[in-house]
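Q: For a teaching handout, I want to show students what a protein-ligand complex looks like in token form. Below are the inputs, and the small molecule is guanine. Please produce the holo structure.
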Amino acid sequence: MKKLDGKEVSAKIQEQVKAEIESLKEKTGRVPGLTVVIVGDDPASKIYVRSKDKMAAKLGINSRVIRLDAEVSRQELIGKIKELNEDDEVDGVLVQLPLPGKFDTWDILDHLDPGKDADSFLPAGLGMILLNRSRVFPCTPAGILKILEYYEIDVTGMDVVVVGRSFIVGKPIAAMLTNLHATVTVCHTRTKDLPAVVRRADMVVAAVGKAGIIGPDMVKEGAVLIDVGVNRLNKKEEVERYCTERQQEKFVKKGYGICGDIHKDAYAKSSYYTPVPGGVGLMTVAMLMHNTLQLFKKRVKT
Ligand code: GUN
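A: Here is the structure, written as tokens, with guanine included.
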């Protein structure tokens, strides 16, 4: 088994994005602009948004965060998005999800200019992925493909099982892997016999958000394990059952441990696996920077 190091791949992407931004700045006198909109004060979202803002600034992107109160009205929020659509300094916009419960996500996102959709969440972006004509992909699936590319893992002909059917990860990664000639099966909460399906997989992509749901008994010897789940556990028995030793130490110090959807005991059966933390999660923010650069290039027509 070999660990796929998200930190190493993320560092490489950041280096490439930074270098390209510098050279485009010389050519065009402009740098890419990214605006993140966050509504309310979900603690996890606040941490993500801070890390996006920090990385954007580090790579030379003109980064802005618009923080709106959870009480903001639908009209005000849509008005803000329309302003960003018109703002020539803004190449990419990301509306951090989840939005507070009173909003209908699509009712809001539908007002965003598809040419500025840094997440590639809008129907136009997803449609382009299905047609295999896309240059911008949702950040987490894009990060998975970059890891596979970096470690020269060719998915052609592989039986891939994707567990989870969200529009953020499961659905787009299934289409993207199909475009790369994998044979893809998508599993979800109503799948009749999840262990039987997963056991056939040459590669498992787990994106469910349930600690250790993919157990060692469900994994074929030599499978590639890609874990998108980030689960925060604070009960001692759970931390001991699902978290690596390192995270168990963290639990003692900080009162919580992080683990993925793939049980740590399954790693030993794999050919390659992404750890949690330290795997796919670290790629997501780097791919947002990559996407912002692609949107900028399209807008300035380089
Ligand atoms: N919330 C969790 N992941 C994401 C993401 O990739 N993009 C946005 N906009 N919100 C998220």
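A: Two things your students might notice: The pocket of guanine is lined by residues 94-97, 119, 139-140, 168, 284 (CB under 6 Å). The first helix runs from residue 6 to 28.
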